[in-house]
Amino acid sequence: MLLSITTTHQPAVDLGYLLHKRPGRFQSFDLSFGQAHVFYSEATDDSCTACLLLDINSVDMVRGKGRDSNFGIGQYVNDRAFCASSLLSVAIAQVLGTALGGRCNERPELVSQPIPLTARLDVLPVRGGEQLLHRLFEPLGYEVEATRHPLDDRFPQWGESSYYSATIRGTTTLSQLLTHLYVLMPVFDNAKHYFVGEDELEKLLAKGGGWLAAHPEKEQITRRYLINRPGLYRQALARLVEEEPVAASEGTASGDRHEEKLEKGISLNEQRLGAALAALRASDAKSVIDMGCGEGRMLRELLEDRQFERIVGVDVSSRSLEIAERRLKLDRRPEKQTERIKLLHGSLLYRDARFSGFDAAAVIEVIEHLEPFRLSALERVLFEFARPETVVLTTPNREYNVMWETLPAGQFRHADHRFEWTREEFQDWADQVSRRFGYTVVFLGVGPVDDAVGAPTQMGVFQRD
């Protein structure tokens, strides 16, 4: 497998200082599974390319394994010698460890200087298709190009393989680029070729510090990096959630401010909460779970209404739950009120027994923050497993965006929105969910209605058959 890193920073040969590898020298390093070679395919002031080539020995990889090893013939017949994997991460750490750690004694000013960098991987196994490359690299600021390889050029009827030549480009520090590659290589392959234990969890958190907690695919990255070991995954995700930026949790991020500014003139948030509360009251629900409760605005409305005897708020962000607790002033309320409410740390994408047994669920402005491919998980968690009698769900109406002159065409209302549906798209989705899980749904608009584009918020009230 081959990793090449190119820069056009002037002078480009500064790359040699950052890598601690001289451009005019070919170097080889012994690893437990073979050898790594470092060389430069070009080294001028205008452009410099450093290459890391791995020569993997399949026999070395299995030497010392006992008879109980369960790899069988796969120990010797595999793709490890030809494609990037967790072994490349090991090589980066052992051969380019100084650069990975962001150290350069001779030119320390270079370490923190973002420079134009291009990394090319030949070849990369991507268990999840080309879109996975874009979903993992693009939020980190890279441009992505990918070329998919056929299973065999001589037999085109066999179709395409899961192997790609991948190129990413961005302006960043070399240390950051190597860190992203170190973490993501085994994620694309969805496998590791050595034992994964607590030390791997610590490596992930150490290398992911500063960027993984805010990555929209942090759950998938964490799960795959830890080879789907539930115990380690839950620990890692809980610790990552604690590292979420305070600004985002407290609603002061630019996206939150932008959305609030758009909606301020018509007090849309108050209308939305009022409409959802009215639907919950009409359902005669005594117990309500607010899924994705955030900072507790809906919880405050529910707590003030004596109809609701049991109230639970759930959010994946522990910081948001802390803010909700402060805003609700639970430490100052009468005991009879505080006994009615509980806050839970949890994810709407995973089955949780604590979500069951409620008369109604509120899902207010939540689904648009999820990647579309994750909606199927939410659907099962909410409508199949939790299965309340009533679900009140709201989401923006994309058609209404043209009514705000300050919102550029084609832009979402909030920087964290992954999609915004038209009325037809929302109704198609809601009808499909209702048929699949045994509900009926009624649609309502929230906010001022325009004859052409409808209301700014659309609401679906689902009733179990």
UniProtKB/TrEMBL annotation:
<keyword id="KW-0489">Methyltransferase</keyword>
<dbReference type="GO" id="GO:0090486">
    <property type="term" value="F:small RNA 2'-O-methyltransferase activity"/>
</dbReference>
<keyword id="KW-0808">Transferase</keyword>
<dbReference type="InterPro" id="IPR038546">
    <property type="entry name" value="Hen1_N_sf"/>
</dbReference>
<dbReference type="GO" id="GO:0046872">
    <property type="term" value="F:metal ion binding"/>
</dbReference>
<dbReference type="Pfam" id="PF12623">
    <property type="entry name" value="Hen1_L"/>
</dbReference>
<keyword id="KW-0694">RNA-binding</keyword>
<dbReference type="InterPro" id="IPR024740">
    <property type="entry name" value="Hen1_N"/>
</dbReference>
<keyword id="KW-0943">RNA-mediated gene silencing</keyword>
<comment type="similarity">
    <text>Belongs to the methyltransferase superfamily. HEN1 family.</text>
</comment>
<keyword id="KW-0479">Metal-binding</keyword>
<dbReference type="InterPro" id="IPR026610">
    <property type="entry name" value="Hen1"/>
</dbReference>
<keyword id="KW-0949">S-adenosyl-L-methionine</keyword>
<keyword id="KW-0460">Magnesium</keyword>
<dbReference type="InterPro" id="IPR024026">
    <property type="entry name" value="3'-RNA_MeTfrase_Hen1_bac"/>
</dbReference>
<protein>
    <recommendedName>
        <fullName>Small RNA 2'-O-methyltransferase</fullName>
        <ecNumber>2.1.1.386</ecNumber>
    </recommendedName>
</protein>
<dbReference type="GO" id="GO:0003723">
    <property type="term" value="F:RNA binding"/>
</dbReference>
<dbReference type="GO" id="GO:0001510">
    <property type="term" value="P:RNA methylation"/>
</dbReference>
<feature type="domain" description="Hen1 N-terminal">
    <location>
        <begin position="1"/>
        <end position="240"/>
    </location>
</feature>
<dbReference type="Pfam" id="PF13489">
    <property type="entry name" value="Methyltransf_23"/>
</dbReference>
<dbReference type="InterPro" id="IPR029063">
    <property type="entry name" value="SAM-dependent_MTases_sf"/>
</dbReference>
<dbReference type="GO" id="GO:0031047">
    <property type="term" value="P:regulatory ncRNA-mediated gene silencing"/>
</dbReference>
